[in-house]
Amino acid sequence: MQPKTSSLADRPDMLERVAGMADSWPEFVIQDLVGAAHFPRIAAELPEYVLFAEDERGEVVASAYSVPFALGTRGGELPANGWDTVLIWAFSDLRRGVRPDTVSAISISVAPHAQGRGLSAVMLSAMRDNARARGFREVVAPVRPNAKHLEPHTPIEEYVHRVRPDGLPQDPWLRVHARAGATIDSVAPASMTVAASLAHWRRWTGLPFDTEGDIEVPGGLVPVRCEPARGYAVYVEPNVWMRHAL
């Protein structure tokens, strides 16, 4: 049975349930300061860009967040600082009354118990349809390749261009976007940054963080750079910009 999709603009009473849906993001990823400052604002200020799916029991099983922003006035080139930058641009444009010309995906999440049912593709399609209905001609996405964490030392530039015999990307999440019609634009080498004390990293990962150098952490697309003598560690995540013509 196809899940029912709605927006928070149409069903504001669902905000708490959508925001409270369980997800599978690694703990450290949600500590990105730009995301922490701006992500909650999407539901509050741009509820028409927050979509969610309900199963036959009315349980929220997936969500899709996006933001409109002006890309043409910035030269049309997608930013190397990907996810962080597009969030800043979107709310800067909203505050200044700048007319947006593009929609960027921000996140698509599926509740852990509902994964494996194709809901990510359903929500991506719903996001595209929502943008099209609002007059946009393109959706862009700073994609977090969901199997890259299995080989964190592989350069993202190499990883992103791996394809299967049928020509589709080897990475499952890149493949979902490609099947929906997206093409790879570029790599965003510093899409989000998490810099924190060693105590925070130990709490988030359960790892000792007592060795200088690159530390592999569960769920990390690249290693975390650990500096014990200075008391901090930094994670700089690369994403892949993909463009969806509508």
UniProtKB/TrEMBL annotation:
Q: Which Gene3D superfamilies match?
A: 3.40.630.30
User: What CDD domains is this protein classified in?
Assistant: NAT_SF
Judging by the UniProt lineage, the source's domain of life is Bacteria
Q: Which SUPFAM superfamilies match?
A: Acyl-CoA N-acyltransferases (Nat)
What name is this protein filed under?
N-acetyltransferase
Species per Swiss-Prot/TrEMBL record: Streptomyces purpurascens
